[in-house]
Task: structure prediction
Amino acid sequence: MNDYIQTMRSMIGHERLITVGCGAIIEDEEGRILLQRRKDQNNWCLPGGLMEIGETFMETLHREVLEETDLIIEGPELFGIYSGDIGLREYPNGDKIFSVQIIFRVTSYHGELKQEGLESSEHRFFPRDSLPQPLNPGQAAFILDWAEGLKAPIVR
Result:
């Protein structure tokens, strides 16, 4: 959890907090999507995470992807901006958030993909017609929009 969220939680407890997240739909040369299995929820999601105070969307995206995958991404393109009911979440500890998500599509990257990190137990590429289950409920919309081949940018 970043310092901003820890500070806010110390003041507001479990009350709803607005967050901004950036995630990457990383495609390999075969057009498959990279997903990571979360350790805390045992579900599949995109690499990405929450913006820190003063960061740009691109800085957040590059930092989070590198932290979670060891990949350096190049030329991200806007895939979608997601808000509304899909951003309402409550974590097992009672923390509530409303998350706005900025999702980017990436087809160029380099580095050696790590399998396990602080938040994930594995990373794998999946074709559009063979996505793993369960998908992270807060990210299923982005992943399914990609699988359906919707035209970007998507604004919801």
Observations:
- The chain has one domain: 3-155.
- The mean pLDDT is 95.
- The two ends are 26 Å apart (CA to CA).
